[in-house]
Design a protein that fits this description.
50% of the residues are buried. The chain has helices at 16-21, 32-49, 62-73, 87-98, 116-124, 149-159, 178-181, 207-213, 225-232, 243-259, 261-281, 308-319, 345-361, 370-379, and strands at residues 5-6, 55-58, 79-83, 102-105, 131-137, 139-140, 145-146, 162-166, 185-189, 201-205, 285-286, 297-301, 321-322, 324-325, 335-338. It has 388 residues and is α/β, with parallel strands linked by helices. The chain is built from 14 helices and 15 strands. The longest helix is centred in the last third of the chain and has 21 residues, at 261-281. Helix 5 runs parallel beside helix 6 (149-159), helix 11 runs antiparallel to helix 14 (370-379) and helix 13 (345-361) runs antiparallel to helix 14.
């Protein structure tokens, strides 16, 4: 089967050594070899979360990690302020509602990041500190938006509510300092910036969140973090773990740290800047606003004469290039171009060239070569357009 070029918001392309790790013989998940595997993974993750605390590994998708955060930190009836900036922020809020929380949705226009000053004003209207929890998305793949988590941290600390962060597509691609910034529950997953297969989520709690987890009233069993932490301290996971995925994640994290976090973060930002420059040159309009651009997903509206579904279908079927469309209210309105995974500059140039061909074949008005030229200029550092 020919290899497709995946430029999705996740799952992403996986390097050959990571894929090969899946084929290792299974091991005893209660034995010393597994304990060593789990220890390597958690030690590799701790600096990426920016925490000295425990990082708990779960056999689940990222959504399972978000449910774990809700179930272990919040109780039914708790007032929660959801600061979503897209489809997945709304999902986080819905999980909290399903666990009986009273959720207020702090509205932000799609394409924009959370306004720290507006959030500060809202929290000032809560002098009795009735808001127990605040939900945030570090990086929103549905809109190509990244929140400035450092800037939001000061506002949130002053209020004092527990802060729960979806950083599923954020950690690894951009700097995160959980302890320094004071976040309480942070979730990420294997299939994004770490470029591993899906199936593992990871969560870290602050000390006060762990104290809260000992007393919450939410029902939970599989996603009980106290049980998971007890097992982790014995070198185990409480239930049967996805051993092949953990082998692959271990290999992926070794590759990540061999490159170095600063280089990996710069790589994601460089790729996203080149893609934005190329799409703008081809007549697309960035959906995310200046100052809110994500380093892992570029979201853009196509020229008026381009039908999103037809473009994506042609790219996939004729050129083996796989991009995403919009979700929810943005379905068939935007194109999403992911920058995560085992891809390089030549792969991005190939995808941009395929987009130019597909646009020309569908009758769009685009000058051949303009997108590739813009990407090359961005990679060479000759332009700054689309990088902000």
């Amino acid at each position: 089967m020919p290899r497709e070029l995946l430029f999705l918001p996740g799952p992403v392309s996986v390097a050959q050594p990571v894929t090969e790790a899946l084929a290792q013989p299974l091991i005893d998940h209660r034995g010393p070899e597994f304990a060593g595997l789990l220890r390597r993974i958690t030690e590799a993750l701790r600096p990426l979360f920016g925490t000295r605390g425990d990082v708990i590994v779960l056999g689940s998708s990222g959504t399972g990690g978000l449910e774990t955060a809700i179930a272990n930190v919040l109780s039914p009836g708790d007032r929660v302020l959801s600061c979503g900036v897209g489809f997945f922020g709304d999902r986080f809020a819905t999980i909290a509602e399903n666990y009986g929380c009273a959720v207020e949705r702090f509205e932000t226009a799609l394409g924009s990041s959370v306004d720290a000053l507006a959030l500060e004003r809202r929290l000032r209207d809560d002098p009795r500190r009735e808001i127990v929890g605040i939900l945030l998305t570090h990086n929103e793949t549905s809109t190509g938006v990244a929140n400035d988590m450092a800037a939001l941290a000061g506002v949130l600390r002053e209020h004092g509510a527990l802060t729960l962060v979806d950083s599923i597509s954020g950690i690894g691609a951009s700097d995160f300092r959980m302890d320094e910034w004071g976040y309480d529950a942070v979730v990420t997953a294997s299939q994004k910036a770490f470029a591993a297969p899906p199936g593992v989520s990871m969560i870290a709690l602050s000390e006060r969140a762990w104290q809260r987890a000992a007393n919450v009233r939410s029902s939970r069993f599989y996603f009980d973090l106290n049980a998971a932490r007890t097992a982790a301290r014995q070198g185990q996971m409480p239930w049967t773990p996805p051993i092949p995925i953990l082998f692959a994640l271990d290999a992926a994290l070794q590759r990540y740290h061999a490159e170095g976090a600063p280089h990996a973060q710069a790589r994601h930002a460089r790729y996203a800047g080149a893609v934005r420059s190329a799409l703008e040159r081809m007549g697309f309009t960035m959906f995310s606003q200046v100052g809110a651009h994500s380093p892992t997903v570029v979201a853009a509206s196509p020229p008026e004469d381009v039908e999103v579904g037809a473009l994506l279908q042609r790219l996939r079927e004729r050129y083996g290039v796989v991009l995403s469309g919009g979700q929810g209210t943005l379905a068939r309105k935007i194109v999403r171009f992911g920058t995560m995974g085992d891809v390089g500059e030549k792969d991005i140039l190939a995808a941009i060239a395929a987009m130019e061909l597909a646009l020309l074949e569908t009758g769009a008005r685009v000058v051949p070569g303009v997108g590739c030229a813009a990407a090359i200029e961005a990679f060479s550092g000759r332009v700054t357009s689309g990088v902000a």
